[in-house]
Design a protein that fits this description.
7 strands, 32% strand, five-stranded mixed β-sheet, 34% helix, disordered N terminus
Length: 200
């Protein structure tokens, strides 16, 4: 998905993002060895890698992170990937502010695309089409990740997918708002709405 980025902005953002991902979790695979027949790679993380990612994502801890990638060559160096991710992370509940463990089991469809192909598409006649508004169809399409030098980094891709799968407003199971917080009278806009309400 291009999300309306220009070629320069897209590649610059990806370069910065992938750089720190690679520093914390890297599992390079040579793209040229991926042919029509699927190859399966499993990325398992060690304690230091999980600690580094937990720090990056502002999480108290990551106790488990594993990804299974099924890769096959589509065309012209484009590698399709089916990812199955299994993770256990500690998050802080937005209601109680207590830490709790969240289990994440997710799947994702990815496409590793040569950087040269991305530059060509975004820089040519198709740039206007690539910068259209996001639609349900584009949201359902596989995430496209650029790669260079015949090397795709499954570790960086796994870390990125974990970041996307994290709940931005984590809530501990069973946690509920207090009556005061859920009462309409506690809403600072409730009185204002009543004041300007039209009479029956």
């Amino acid at each position: 998905m291009w999300l309306g980025l220009t070629a320069g902005a897209y590649l610059s953002m990806r370069k910065v993002y992938n750089t720190w991902m690679q520093e914390e979790l890297s599992y390079p695979v040579r793209a040229g060895q991926i042919k029509d027949q699927s190859l399966v790679f499993t990325v398992r993380t060690n304690e230091s890698q999980r600690a580094a990612l937990a720090s990056r994502f502002a999480l108290p801890a990551i106790s488990r992170l594993e990804g299974r990638f099924a890769l096959h060559h589509e065309r012209s160096g484009v590698i399709a990937a089916a990812l199955t991710m299994d993770a256990a992370v500690t998050q802080v509940c937005v209601v109680t502010l207590e830490p709790f463990e969240a289990i994440i089991k997710d799947t994702a469809a990815l496409r590793f695309v040569p950087e040269a192909a991305i530059r060509y598409v975004l820089g040519g006649d198709e740039q206007e089409e690539a910068e259209e508004d996001v639609t349900p169809d584009t949201l359902d399409s596989p995430d496209e990740i650029p790669y260079a030098n015949d090397s795709i980094d499954l570790g960086a891709a796994l870390a990125e997918q974990l970041a996307l799968a994290l709940d931005p407003y984590p809530r501990k199971p069973g946690a509920v708002l207090s009556e005061a917080a859920s009462d309409d009278s506690a809403n600072p806009f409730a009185g204002l709405a009543a004041r300007f309400a039209k009479p029956d």
